[in-house]
Amino acid sequence: MSVSVSASASDSTPGLSPSSLLLMALACGLCAGGNYFNQPLLHSIAGHFSVSESAAATSVTLAQVAYAGGLLLLAPLGDKLQRRGLAVSLMLLAAVGQALCGFSQNLPMFLLGTLLAGLFSVAAQVLVPMAAALAQPGQSGRAVGWVMSGLLLGILLARSVAGMVSGAWGWQAVYQGAALVMAVVALWLWKALPASRNPVPVSYGQVLSSMWSLLRSQPGLRQRTLVSALAFASVSVLFSTMALQLSSGPLGLGDGQIGLIGLAGAAGALVATQAGRLVDKGLGRVSCAIGALALLLSWPMLWVGGSHLGWFVLGMVVIDLGLQCLNITNQATVAQLMPVARGRMNAVYMTGYFTGAAAGSALGTLAWRLNGWQGACALGVALALMAALETFRMRKSHGLQQPMAVH
């Protein structure tokens, strides 16, 4: 079976109301944010299970690896199955994983819950291309920007909410509450969203086999996936080590205080909608350039911020702004490259994106063991520099690629 790129990619229910977009943004924020609850809680988790902080920090890498696996194996099903039902089912299963974390009695049980929550939280990446598919012509970048704003705010606020809830009721209450809220929002999605299905559905085997063909044949997809993967790897070095530095370094902060610092990064998510609009206007390269420069500038601030809280907060704002500019621009661009394979294109992109995140988390933990905060910052700078170099080497690729057959 082959499908031409010129085939219609419109869904039976065009357009999305603002309330539907907001609900999708909320769901994406809950799904993605759940993978970041552990970051400000590592000290408390390690103490609860009587393990080292490095052992507890493996949950950060595991969450990213599980999410990447879900992106590769589950998110492409959006090109085969009814998207609303798929997103709701995955979100309910992610809630089960969060509940398992919340009631875990030992570290292996907690890690199993982390694995399940990460794997099934790719419901967010079914909703993102669904928003692009249902958007009015010429507004897909804006729709992706709105939904991704929710996802990004979820990631950023998750650390703050987790820290505050942990400070008040204990770290397990974070996961128990998240499981309940996710289940409620999943059922709300089922009632509120229209049915949405790829007009030319393909088999699961064809879905998986065609993803490699897409990566091989689409230079724009390869370039933008690499840039975003390197950028997220750089930021994940920070995510995997910040709690260790802030809790044990000269600042000596607690869970709640570390969580509040995550609020600073929320400013970066405010650019998400604007970045999507720049793509719609053909100015994606400008947004990418801003993101790459912000990523580079953030790490000197964070290095000084290891012992000076003001600089750390400023670095958090700048690094999140850089990552969001790059990710939103690249993801919105990828969504436009081949509408008939939108789910698979997004899955390839996001698999690479979170593979970069997992690698950054693992390398960041290793750098911390070898040389503490200085080692982590050196690694973050190196990865940010690689992302910047790839950004400025990237050809203009936000237009449609040449038509091809997708098998």
From TrEMBL:
Gene Ontology MF term list: transmembrane transporter activity
Keywords: Membrane, Transmembrane, Transmembrane helix
Pfam families, A to Z: MFS_1 (PF07690)
Domain Major facilitator superfamily (MFS) profile: 1-399
Keyword Metal-binding belongs to the record: no
Residues spanning the membrane: 57-74, 86-105, 111-131, 143-162, 168-190, 226-246, 258-276, 283-302, 308-326, 347-367, 373-392
Signal sequence, start to end: none
Listed PANTHER family: MAJOR FACILITATOR SUPERFAMILY (MFS) PROFILE DOMAIN-CONTAINING PROTEIN, TRANSPORTER SCO4007-RELATED
Stated name of the protein: MFS transporter
Lineage, broadest ranks: Bacteria, Pseudomonadati, Pseudomonadota, Betaproteobacteria, Burkholderiales
